[in-house]
Amino acid sequence: MNIKELRLKEKGELSAILNDLRKQLDELRFKAHQGQLKSVREIRVIKKNIARVLMATKEAK
Predict the structure, then answer these.
(1) Helices marked H in the chain — which ranges?
(2) What tens-digit pLDDT sequence spans the chain (61 residues)?
(3) For the whole model, what pTM was predicted?
(4) With 0-12 CB in 10 A as exposed, 13-18 as middle and 19+ as buried, what is 54?
(5) Residue boundaries of the structural domains of the chain
(6) Topology (CATH) of 3-59
(7) What is the largest CA-CA distance in the chain?
């Protein structure tokens, strides 16, 4: 996700994206714990996307 794209979205859309990303993060953590995850880097990417969405949410006030 690009921060420029996120800044154009409304607060409701950002909260929906945030919920989806958090669900994905939970699933990835669960898979990592079970040993089914091939690349742990995916977790890092999702975390950075969550941070971007949170930053865009704070700017959208």
Answers:
(1) 3-7, 11-34, 41-59
(2) 889 999 999 999 999 999 999 999 999 999 999 999 889 999 999 999 999 999 999 998 6
(3) 0.90
(4) middle
(5) 3-59
(6) Helix Hairpins (1.10.287)
(7) 40
